[in-house]
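FIELD: query
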Amino acid sequence: MKRLTKAEEEVMQIIWKLGRCTVSDIRQYMADELQQPKPPHSTVSTVVRTLEDKGILDHKAYGRTYEYFPTITKQDYSSLTLKKFVSDYFDGSMQRLVSFMVKEQNLSLNDLSDLLDKLDEVDEEEL
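FIELD: result
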């Protein structure tokens, strides 16, 4: 999967929240929910078409109106992105990632304990 730009990720976050939606729905969400100035229709349309070219979105046409929908779930995208991040910055080692987070004090002892509990749950599910 191709890496998404910041603008593409922002639009995808909105689409994952809205589900099936039009470019107008995305623009309205940005204005109403994100309190951002409503971007030009052509700008959002260009981003959406790029996402479609990357295989992240598909559409259904209703005359001249296109309804877009994701072809990948947010969870699947998050998993792929995390794996790529760990591969690029921590030589593929989740242990190095966790160690980095602890050293940078971004992970409290409670957070670390919760993470270990979740890892134990995953291990038990795989058995």
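FIELD: remark
Strands lie at 57-62, 65-70.
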